[in-house]
Write a structure and sequence with these properties.
Structural class: alpha+beta
Strand order of the largest sheet: 1-2-3-5-4
Helix content: 10-25%
Oligomer: single chain
Number of helices: 3
Number of domains: 1
Number of strands: 5
Largest sheet: 5 strands, mixed
Radius of gyration: 16 Å
Distance between the termini: 21 Å
CATH class: Alpha Beta
Shape: elongated
Order of helices and strands: HHEEEHEE
Strand content: 35-45%
Length: 139
């Protein structure tokens, strides 16, 4: 196994999301790798937890990464959050990510969970994606 590509994968996912015009318009550019301190917008996207499992083969080190991208909204219903979640999925599924280390030959939607948080005023959708990464030298 190699966890060496993890930072490069996170960077590529973040760049893909922040560079997506449709998603950026829906959340007014509020896409965070780490949630900043202080007040937050009414609608935003943040990168979340990640889990990696070994998937090396005869060609070199590799891993399957499951990572979460979350939509947080204080809108009354889930409609707005679901529109943002769809835009995230459209931006990432089978995206040709360019990594600074290694390659990402596969990126797929895995699951989603929509729920109310706290006192029920916040809506949260956690989208989980699965990426296969190979820790091979970039050309």
């Amino acid at each position: 196994m190699s966890y060496g590509v993890a930072a490069a994968l996170q960077e590529a996912v973040y760049q893909r999301l922040t560079g997506d015009v449709a998603l950026g318009a829906l959340v007014s550019g509020a896409i965070y790798d780490a949630v900043p301190p202080g007040s937050l917008p009414d609608l935003y996207v943040t990168l979340g937890p990640e889990e990696a499992r070994a998937r090396s083969d005869g060609t070199g080190g590799g891993a399957w990464h499951r990572f979460t991208v979350s939509v947080i909204s204080n809108a009354a219903g889930f409609q707005t959050a679901k529109q943002v979640a769809a835009a995230i999925s459209d931006a990432l599924v089978d995206a040709p990510l360019v990594l600074s280390r290694g390659t990402c030959p596969a990126l797929h939607f895995f699951r989603a969970r929509a729920r109310r948080e706290g006192t029920g005023e916040l809506r949260r959708i956690d989208l989980t994606f699965r990426a296969r990464v190979d820790d091979t030298p970039n050309p």
